[in-house]
Amino acid sequence: MRLRRIRRRVQVWTKRHIPPGMRLLLGLILMGFGVLGFLPVLGFWMFPLGLAVAALDVVPVLRWLKGRTRK
Predict the structure, then answer these.
(1) Are 7 and 48 in contact (CB under 8 A)?
(2) Could you tell me the end-to-end alpha-carbon distance of the chain, in angstroms, rounded to an integer?
(3) pLDDT: is 68 or 18 the higher one?
(4) Buried/exposed code over 28-43 (b: 16+ C-beta within 10 A; e: otherwise)
(5) pLDDT digits (tens, 9 = 90+) for 14-58
(6) d(Cα 9, Cα 41) in Å, to the nearest integer?
(7) 55, 31 in Cβ contact below 8 A?
């Protein structure tokens, strides 16, 4: 339950402060560094966080594509 609140907080903050194109890039960078989770500062926690941030930009694109293919 606590992780959901943290994820939601991060998504809201990101949506307000980071422009749309940069959110996807930031999410991909976080996921990339999340793969290096065995390093001390970089952790596996970065991968789900990056996924949550990138999802803010991917979902509208998927909805737009879905609407375009229904014609």
Answers:
(1) yes
(2) 40
(3) 18
(4) eebbebbeeeeeeeee
(5) 889 999 889 889 888 988 888 887 777 777 788 888 888 888 888
(6) 22
(7) no
Question: DSSP string spanning 2-70?
Answer: HHHHHHHHHHHHHHHHS-HHHHHHHHHHHHHHHTTTTSSSS-TTHHHHHHHHHHHHHHHHHHHHHHHHT
What is the total residue count of the chain?
71
| Amino acid, single-letter form, for residue 19 | P
Mean pLDDT value of segment 49-68: 78
pLDDT band at 65 (very low <50, low <70, confident <90, very high): low
Torsion, Cα of 58, 61, 56, 23 (10° steps): 80
